[in-house]
Amino acid sequence: MHFIPQKDQMDCGPACLAMIARHYGKSYSLNYLRDHSFISREGVSLSGISEAAKSIGIEAASYSISLDELNQHQSFPSIIHWNQNHFVVLYAIRKSLFTGKKIYKIADPSHGLLSLSEDRFKKSWISKDNKEGIAMYLSPTDNFFSAKVHNEKELSISFLYKYLVPHRSKIALLFLLLFVGTLITLIFPILTQKLIDDGVEPKNLKIITYILLGQLSFFLGNIILSILRNWILLAVGTQINIQIISDFFKKLLLLPVKFFDTRMMGDFNQRIQDHERIEQFLTSQGITTLFSILVFSVFFGVLWFYDFRILIVYVALTFLSVIWSLIWMKKRKSLDYFRFQQQSQNQQSNFEILNGVTELKINQYETLKLRQWEEIQHKLYDINMRILKNDQIQVAGFDFLNQLKNILVTFLAASFVVSGKMTLGGLLSVSYIIGQMNSPVAQLIGFFRSLQEAKLSLSRLNEVQNHPDEEQANLKPLDLNTLNYNGTQAKKGIRLNNISFQYEGPKSPFVLKDIDIFIPEGKITAIVGSSGSGKTTLMKLLLRFYDPTAGEILYNDDNILSLSPKSIRENCGVVMQDGYIFSDTIKRNIATGDEHIDTQKLHNSARIANIESFILSNPLEYETKIGASGNGISGGQKQRILIARAVYKNPHYIFFDEATSALDADNEKIIHNNLQSFFKDKTVVIIAHRLSTVKNADQIIVLKDGQVSELGHHNYLVEKKGEYFSLVKNQLELGA
Ligand SMILES: Nc1ncnc2c1ncn2[C@@H]1O[C@H](COP(=O)(O)OP(=O)(O)OP(=O)(O)O)[C@@H](O)[C@H]1O
């Protein structure tokens, strides 16, 4: 079974499928399978895997079966549900030669290939409550064999070339320094030989002094060169690092919101840290390796000059040690993937503990959360241990072969001295050269390892770099003036024609179903409905965070799918339920998009949002820092700043999702009155539970389980005594 490790925490399903496709002779990328398995933050479901399998021509059927049935069926490779939270491939059941007991061979995408005893297998496979476990049998159809493999192109190391180009002159200087350094190193063995043969043997103290002084000055020269080299390396390395990470962020911000739905914060954090390895590779490793190759080649020539046989022994053993190291490096590759996942989980866990500290304390969740954190540390420790062992075996073997080489070469050289074929100076010189040639070989191995790590980091980047941007060239900007709908002079507005929506692929529940509504231009539309009825989702569709599964959304005449998402959002003032306050001044938090803030507009929006008196009560007024690294603000103040942000933007469309839910009745009333003139000529959609917010809307849409259950004015809906009435009944009784 060709093992394929998972790349991200939630990738086990796609990785299992990739192994199975590979088993039948096709290499599908994890990204492709991931995109077709409707992965969510919780990972992929069995139905998601079967959808992805279908998309590549593999029939999949899942069963809940007993161990006996599994043993009898013998259909391999199959995917099995593991520890209730993971998928692995079962690729063989064998009998042990010694004990005759069954051995289950599994490929765990987060661990590697494993052979498990029946008890151990049962423990992870059988679900706790019954005697059965879940197995998915897969069989390739003709379509699988005839289909063309869809894989996105992999980023190659040459992708990194563009990062080196701006630093051409510094890199040229580095080469020059390296070259001079190499020349100096070359002089040392010659001086050593001269010291012995022309100084020590003829007992000439003057020559000895001169040669040693010469050595001292060359040594000093080398130190100065290496200081200069490190300075340049640091400068170039830092700049490249900044560039790579800034490109990564730029790319991230171009991706659709949906992309972020299925990824964990830890995965992103870890990717950013991962970048250092690429930078390391490009700068220190890449350049020192070139230097090493230069030194190595020069000494290679010198050794050839001394004795051909010594060179042969040297080359043969070096070759062996390199092969040895490469074998172990291959093993390390999978381990590196596993470590990445654990590190991502670790980051995620740290992030969650720090972010949720208040809730942890209030709800006494600390102990459990800390235990989870400790478990991650244990796993991290285990994987680090496996890596350490792997590295130790590699280094020990390499060192042993190296020492063997040194001893053999010294023996050969010494026997040449004994037989008079070489001078004593020659022997010392050869020893020096061998010493000098050892470290370039070690560096070369380090280079390959660094190359492998950089490639892994690149492949993780690949997923982000290869994802299509949200903005595409064929999309046009939102035109607020298109008028004719269906060729007739119709009303302007947003039209939703039979919209349905599912978050996670064809098998997931419909969050919105057959929504057929019109949001008229210049009017206020309110959306009400019980929690989870799909109100926020509807708003997200209007902002093109997601595309509808069925039906069409038209902004005046234009289908939303033909419009640039950026241009839609530029024309929308939005207050989301989980609106974000940045760590910045109040001023910047309100005027987010303007480089030069219009003070008049700023004050006006703060007044409309009824937040001005709070702002002015701070000594620094609009310059007061708020957000994570500034002053804390209350929930209501946050909502008012978010409203001020939308007002400052002064867009054509206004979407408010529970924008005033945290405010007291007085504040809400004031803001409402203030907003009335601001809403004039704007198309407004308000999601709210409060009667006072929705009752004056031009139309009220009532959503129930993702469908429109009622539509009309407040009075009409109250008289109807239907869904709307029961939603606001309590508030009516209070006379709100
Ligand atoms: N990113 C997501 N992935 C999967 N399902 C989601 C996602 N976001 C929301 N849902 C589901 O969609 C359904 C509708 O959610 P939505 O947030 O639109 O409801 P809502 O009417 O705005 O609720 P509330 O009044 O509580 O804010 C819910 O069942 C929710 O679990």
From TrEMBL:
It is a multi-pass membrane protein. SUPFAM superfamilies: ABC transporter transmembrane region (SSF90123), P-loop containing nucleoside triphosphate hydrolases (SSF52540). One of its GO terms (cellular component) is plasma membrane. Residues 6-132 form the Peptidase C39 domain. Residues 172-453 form the ABC transmembrane type-1 domain. It holds the Pfam family Peptidase_C39. The chain crosses the membrane at residues 171-191, 207-228, 287-305, 311-329, 407-434. Keywords: ATP-binding, Hydrolase, Membrane, Nucleotide-binding, Transmembrane, Transmembrane helix. InterPro entries: AAA+_ATPase, ABC1_TM_dom, ABC1_TM_sf, ABC_transporter-like_ATP-bd, ABC_transporter-like_CS, P-loop_NTPase, Peptidase_C39, Type_1_exporter. Residues 494-730 form the ABC transporter domain. It is found in: Cell membrane. One of its GO terms (molecular function) is peptidase activity. Coiled coil: none annotated. GO terms for biological process: proteolysis. It comes from the Bacteria. CDD domains: ABC_6TM_peptidase_like, Peptidase_C39B. PANTHER family: ATP-BINDING CASSETTE SUB-FAMILY B MEMBER 10, MITOCHONDRIAL, ATP-DEPENDENT PERMEASE MDL1, MITOCHONDRIAL. This is ATP-binding cassette, subfamily B.
